[in-house]
Amino acid sequence: MANETIHRAIERQTATRPDGSAFAGVGRTLSYRQLNQQANALARHLIASGLVRGSVALVRMPRSPELVVVLLAVLKAGAAYAWIDPDAPQAIDLPASFCIVKEKAGRERQYLALDLTSALRDVAERPSPNLPILSRGTDIACVLPGDGTAAYVLVPHATVAELAGRRAPRLSEWDADPGAFGLWQALMTGATVTLSETPHETVAA
User: What is the pTM of this model?
Assistant: First the structure.
């Protein structure tokens, strides 16, 4: 698992069971093929919009099929995500629900804010092959809030990929874990991610 990445493990599941259910809930379903193709197409859009390998995207969206596509697209682009649940008590305010961290000026962060509304709609049925971006297990997959000893925690792909060694339940409810680790464990092992709570309106701008 040392060189494994989250998205490559999901791509293998797609090749094995393309018509299997990757997401089911809140009136929406996504097969593994649909999820993979939409994430591929969105990753290309994000790269063209300024998301570069090694950068960090702040994603402030509720759990939804759109969020699955967005987070997977970030990984496929070679970047890392920091997911911010809008319902969290201390959710930070951002200029848009998808922001690329560009640089720091003093203690102030600068963001490139993207409106993904049209992009998410456009990738719905667009065939798109896997991206040829070189990825390694040591690459950072997500950024978590700090535990008191550090401002934030960097989690590499290989750490999350180890979860694939423990098969998830066939139907895996998506919880609010800020790293989305349960989401990835389910998808890397061919399970179906479920979401039963009342959906929020997804705003990608």
Answer: 0.91
